Every structure is written in C-alpha cells, then in structure tokens.
Amino acid sequence: MSMIEGIKFGSLASLVAVTVAFSPVLAQQPRKPNVVVMLMDNLGYGELGVYGGGLLRGAATPRIDALAGEGTRLLNFNVEAQCTPSRSALMTGRFAIRSGTYEVPIGGVPDGLTQWEVTIAQLLSGQGYATGMWGKWHLGSAQARLPTNRGFDEWYGIPRTYDEAMWPSLDETRSMWPSVGDKQGWSARLVEPEPIYEARSGEIPRVVATLNVDNRRTMEAEITRRAVDFIKRNASAGKPFFAYVPFSLVHMPTLPNLEFAGKTGNGDWADCLAEMDYRTGQVLDAIKQAGVEDDTLVIFTSDNGPEATNPWEGDNGPWRGTYFTAMEGSLRAPFIIRWPGKVPAGRVSNEIVHIVDLFTTIAHVGGADVPKDCPIDGVDQLDFFFGKQEASNREGFPAYVADRLSAVKWRNWKVHLVWQENMYAPPQKLPLPKVINLLTDRKEERDVAAYNSWVADPAMKIIGGLEESFKMYPPIKLGTPDPYTPPSR
C-alpha cells in the first residue's frame, strides 16, 4: 500500500469511526430495565414485620422490611381469591373471569390459560428480554400450556399445586397423621404424582423429580439458586431480563427446609418465615452483586390471602377472612415495589391497586404494547409508583370468587353481594347488598347501607362496565381446549 493510499484509508477509517460514534441511528440505545417479581404463595397480610407481623409471628423479617424502606409499600394492593385466578391476572392483565381461569382447576378438563391469551413473558420476550420462571405455574398442565410455551425461556417447578406433595405420605404408618391404607389411599396407578419439571423454550420439559414432602422442603432453595444464576448470567451478558420468582412458601404443607427447621424455636411456621426472608435476601443480593440494582424494578407480593386449613392457618392482620372469599383478608396482600432513583423510598400508600395492573405497568417498563384485540383490565400505574401523582389510576374493581361476583370495592367502600367469611363457610347470596366502610370497620362487621345507599351508584357503574364488555367479549369458559378462537363481533 502506498503512502497516499494509506492516508486515504486512514481518513476513511476515521470518518467511519466518527459516523458510528455520532449517528443517532447507530448510537447505543439505553439499556432496558430489568424486572424481578417475587410472588409469595398464600402469604397473609399480617405475616411480615412491616405489616404488623414478624416477631409477633415468631420470626423477624429484616430483609423484606428493609426492602420496604427502600421502596414503596402499599396497604391496599388487591389480588384474586384463589391461586390460579391471581396468577392468571398477573400474566394476562385480565380478570380471571374472562380467561376461564377463575378457580383452581380440578382434574378431568383442560386447565389453565388457552394459547390465545398473551402473557407478560411473551410481551417482554418480544422486546428482547431474557425470561425465566422458577416455581408453581398453575396455569395449565398440558405441555402446550406450560411456561416455556407461554413466553418463558426457562422454567423449573411444578405445573399445579403444593397440596399434592402430601399424596405419597397418606399411607405412612410412622407419621403422626392417621394412615388411610394402601387399599383405599392414593396410588400412582390411580393418579400420577405431580412432576417437578426443568424446561427450556423449544424443548420438551424434563421430569427431574416427583413432588413429595421431602422435595417440597427443598423447593425454596432450588428456586432461589436458579433465579440467582439467571440474574447473574444475564446481567453479565448485558441482556435485560424478566425474572418471575413464584416462591413456594407459605403454601400448605407449610414446611421449612431442614436447614431452617428449628432455627427460630417457634415452630414450623416461624421457621418458614425466617427461610422466606432469607431467600428473598439472596435474590436481592444477586441483583446488587450483578451491578444492576439501579436498573432493576423489584416487586415483592403475594398471590392470595392466608391459608385457612389446620394446622397451617395464616394471619390476615387487621382484616377479616381467608382466601377463597371476598373478605379483605382474602383480597389485600402485602406489596412492596423498589426501583432506586425512580420509586420513592419509604413511601406508604392506601390507594387501590389490583394485581392485573402489574401486567400493564410492567409492559410499559419493558417498552411493550398491550394487546388491542381483547379487554385488558390492568391500568398503567407507573406514574403512581414513581410518585408523580398521589392517587392510583384505579378507584375500584369487581371481586369474583370462582364465577360468583361476590363484592365490589370502590375507594374505601365495599359492597358485598355474596357473604362468605372463610374458605369453608358456604357462600350466601344476600337479599340486599351489605355496604362496609373500610376506614371505620376493618373487620367488616357493620352494614351501613341504610344511610350510605349512594355507594351503590359507583359500585354499579363498575359492574355495569364489566357486563357491557362481556357482551362484546364473552368470557372464555372453564375447561376450554385449544385452539380457542373468540366469537366474531
């Protein structure tokens, strides 16, 4: 190469370098924020220290309490009445009554979300996010409906529920529980045990273990280990990630890892609270150690109110009722959100937010558009979470228990249409609605409808709007198989 040619080549290289550095098209785009959602299982309102529990329940929860101080804590975050409906609402931004997922599935019919529904994992995956989930899915046990066919790159966990861990123990004669007997008790020949899967998108899920009491005790440790690895791996690669961490605690059977058994000296429940706090801390430490704390939106919440079955009853705090009802103890769940520099630290709010809102809000965070061909009930709460406004973008919502419209919440009022105080009480349709002032009557003991009948008007507007949308978009029936096509309008 001659000197002149060399000079020309050098000038051209310099020009290209300058163009790349300053071109608005080629300049490096801002990194998308990461999203970590830790969803506890049946964690009642009164369990955590910052919600009045902690030491009063036998174990301090310092890591979770500290998280609340670093972000915003909600006193009026609301969920659906059962596990499957809440998880469906989170994944789709739609009230579960719309999706045929309004109750915990019982065997014999197709369970979970139809493939027609769009999940938050699918939306974020379309925006270049790595997506991972570890824990209970509960939104379909057929292979086509498992998480890695619904937008998640990887998954470890169970398709249904932790109750099934008890099946293999029913005939243990050395247990403190009465043995049913191998002639009439559970048998794998009658009903297959629940598998624990390991799966990656595009591959057939592998069964790595069977859910039993021993494996149930180790679920939290394994969920955490895999979530931590995912966070560090993708942070190191510079890839934005969505980590959905549905923990197993404190779902019945509420059993701690043997590493924590006896640690508090206050029994299994307290030991489980201690383990839950520790595992949460491990996930938070992974985010910090990966150097992405300031770029990560963290949400800590629960899918339901407290357990109702002896001996695993949970604590509903100042409220009344258990999950599987429309009482406040069922609907209100702990909720903490942190995003350093964006979400105000130490803020506490009693504004209404519903779990469907997380779908729409997280989609906004990830730069995704929500579906336009179906009703999305979730509202974008980002400005509220950021402290740009004091009021939530939601004033109320309908509360379904299974397919029964049981109550309506509006501001600090509650209108009961069906009365059911706990999971095992029969639901009773009321001849006249009960109106409760939640500011003066947290136990929902006094019906003040006689002199507050005006509350029925905003409540009926919520019901009326929902029923109108049902005419245009009929709800999907429970047990609907794939492929599902909505009726033409």
From TrEMBL:
<keyword id="KW-0378">Hydrolase</keyword>
<comment type="similarity">
    <text>Belongs to the sulfatase family.</text>
</comment>
<keyword id="KW-0479">Metal-binding</keyword>
<protein>
    <submittedName>
        <fullName>Arylsulfatase</fullName>
    </submittedName>
</protein>
<dbReference type="Pfam" id="PF00884">
    <property type="entry name" value="Sulfatase"/>
</dbReference>
<dbReference type="InterPro" id="IPR050738">
    <property type="entry name" value="Sulfatase"/>
</dbReference>
<keyword id="KW-0732">Signal</keyword>
<keyword id="KW-0106">Calcium</keyword>
<feature type="domain" description="Sulfatase N-terminal">
    <location>
        <begin position="33"/>
        <end position="367"/>
    </location>
</feature>
<dbReference type="GO" id="GO:0004065">
    <property type="term" value="F:arylsulfatase activity"/>
</dbReference>
<dbReference type="InterPro" id="IPR000917">
    <property type="entry name" value="Sulfatase_N"/>
</dbReference>
<dbReference type="GO" id="GO:0046872">
    <property type="term" value="F:metal ion binding"/>
</dbReference>
<dbReference type="InterPro" id="IPR017850">
    <property type="entry name" value="Alkaline_phosphatase_core_sf"/>
</dbReference>
